[in-house]
Amino acid sequence: MTRLGFTRDLLRPAGGDEAHRVTFVELFFDLVFVFAVTQISHHLIATPSFAGLVQTIMLTMAIWWVWVDTAWVTNWLNPEQARVRGLLIALMLGALLMSSAIPEAFGAKGVLFTVSLVAIQLARGIFTVLAFAHHRPDNAVNFARITIWAAASGVFWIAGAFAPPEPRLWVWLIALAIDFCGPVGRFYVPGLGASDTRTWNVSGEHMAERVSLFAIIALGESIVVTGTTFGHLPLSGESLLAFLAAFAGTVLMWLIYFNHAQRSGTEHIVHASDAGAVARVAYTYIPVILVVGIVLAAVGDAVVLESPSGPVAGGAALVIAGSAVIYLVANVLFARSIGGPWLVVHLSAILVLVLLTVLSLLTPLLSALALSWLSNLVLLLVVLADELLVRRKRHRSTAAQGI
To answer: Are residues 152 and 248 in the same domain?
Structure first.
């Protein structure tokens, strides 16, 4: 392995701010995913059906996997190096092509979508093998395994692009399953074995910040949908209430994760003995659930703004209240993954939101606007309860130290 690869050291410094800092080129790379998340939410708005919902979730997971794999790589590679910067710009171009194809991914542009996706995954993997070869041979072997898994899933991604729309979804779900099973199986490859998570010596601080920034990108899509949709509506008391409901929902989702959970997660992974194992669960698998919840919430905001009055339809109820359920489930799982307890308040809120959704599906009592505000009320109670619990914990800790 050491006979191959770049002789120049392209890795981040082992210590100091450079080891953890998110660079400007990484933020520049993220701009494509602002567009990608917008494309995904608009895909469901344009195809309001169960099939459209499944497609939207699948597309969100695919986009997330492209982004998070790159976040792992830039955890080790130094984006200030010209070659790494060139890699990110090339990946950015591929991601832009992939994102542009999202509206017709299940139509005429399926080949563009999948070829771009597979090219990104393979190019990144091969480049990282070459970057690690001289300096960290064990990590080079890890990325050789990862690249082999990417090639295996790539066969199904590309094969699916040539299938009719309905079979295409199933073939792509197989590809996605391969991608998501890779880290669980530690990328086992016959002859190369499985990766050791202890060699995944990630910067916990960097990984936590990168995932938090992606959550901000996804929340930003809710703001874009809210502003754009409201801007095309005639001004009325009802449309203003719908606008305020959408904005309040976005703020509440931000508070639920960023008030305390984000900080707790950062502290946990920074001090973890096996940061790679923590990052695999808390910052690779669970955040995609969080992002799906945010994307669906953006669609729900558009539904409420477009049709605030009248009985809420079944699909609308699922995205308005169901998105909050998914978001809270992600927060519960995140808390457990960083060593926290089961969040009883969140679980109770999930139950209430499920009941609200069922009530909306069975009876015509609630309008979309009413369901939106009721969902926001539940989220507000979660925020207040979280704050109260944290303050009590701090008070007990301060009292104990004073004894």
So the answer is: no
